[in-house]
Amino acid sequence: MRKILVSMALAAGMMAYAGGFRVSLQGVKQLAMAHTSAHAEDASVAFFNPAGISFIPAKLSVAAGGFGVSDKITYQNTSTLQQTETDNPLGTPIYAAIAYKVMDNVSVGFSFSTPFGSTIEWPSDWEGKEIVQKLELKSYFFQPMISVKLAPWASFGASYIYVKGKVDWTKALTQYGGQLNLLDDTATGHGFGFGFYFQPNNNLDVSVAYRSPVDMKAKEGKATFTVPSSLLSNFNGGSDNFKATLPLVDEYTIGVTYKVTPKWLISADYNYHGWERYSKLTLDFSTVAAGNQPNDPTVSVSPKNFKNTSSVRIGTQYAFNDMIFGRLGWYYDQSPYADKDFIPEIPSFDNYVITGGVGFKFNKLGVDLSGAYAMPKSRTFNNPNLSFAGQAKADVFFFGLGLSYNAF
């Protein structure tokens, strides 16, 4: 069962990615400006920094939006030059937020978002079928929050974070003529966030925020082995349970927005992600001996070798008039692992992204459109843990529609 335990350990890594794989799509307006955070015009600031809701120019504000993510990964065997492409469905991250000013110096809010997750689908008979055929990841973040103004120009905010996650992962068991599916849709985790927001004058916004790590606990995962009936006794009749604690990384953000003229503003962000929490991942099966630990063959431990990463973001907005706004941006994200640790379940690349969009304001209602084109850096890799090597590249495009309403 050696090949099974290696792949299962990698599946645990994938489940961690269900919360830890950061997808910067939590505000349509923000995405158009490179997903920068120091914008307190409406309730969408709630996800980025709970302190920012104190500076929303309305007592009650709501915001919601959704995105489409079109991505294609191409793998090439460098020996045969044969190429394989994914057939991924359109991803649809969403978000919603509300903020209410209880008193002049106290505001409360709530943010719902899906910041981590994706679906990747390779052909069922491709070269890496024993690693992954299809993987669906979902996460749901629920964040109630409170913000207090410490001074007319400064606020502090904090949020509680509750997370629900799901993984549905299928791979081939070629040596047994079958498949393995790992499913868990009850994983949960808890965390917190806090931040400071400053508006020293009408031309400058400064946002400093922290989001804690979250340990997603999968307690009732189900492993299904589809193998010939003659082998079922080796796999507990074809099904087993598993447990895992899946770490999601913490995030530090510093953002600045400066209004150069009454019509033109420039924003910049720096993000730091603590990916080194992925030193190892452990998967604990109830009965099937698919592990790699001498003292307990039902436990599989896999080193991950992830590293901390950072991203840099620059965006701008120009108001053509009181109703129409144009936006542009650029940002750079680092991959959390080296070429030798490349995994086709979640292909990751150093990524350059160009963003843009337009916004329309109809009195209290805002309508925003955005799009982004990613230019991931291709990779040549050789992962010795998987005995899997080759080249990989990606094509990714985002688009989004958002609404906001500052009621009164």
TrEMBL record:
<comment type="similarity">
    <text>Belongs to the OmpP1/FadL family.</text>
</comment>
<dbReference type="GO" id="GO:0009279">
    <property type="term" value="C:cell outer membrane"/>
</dbReference>
<dbReference type="Pfam" id="PF03349">
    <property type="entry name" value="Toluene_X"/>
</dbReference>
<protein>
    <submittedName>
        <fullName>Aromatic hydrocarbon degradation protein</fullName>
    </submittedName>
</protein>
<keyword id="KW-0732">Signal</keyword>
<keyword id="KW-0472">Membrane</keyword>
<keyword id="KW-1134">Transmembrane beta strand</keyword>
<keyword id="KW-0812">Transmembrane</keyword>
<dbReference type="GO" id="GO:0015483">
    <property type="term" value="F:long-chain fatty acid transporting porin activity"/>
</dbReference>
<feature type="signal peptide">
    <location>
        <begin position="1"/>
        <end position="18"/>
    </location>
</feature>
<keyword id="KW-0998">Cell outer membrane</keyword>
<dbReference type="InterPro" id="IPR005017">
    <property type="entry name" value="OMPP1/FadL/TodX"/>
</dbReference>
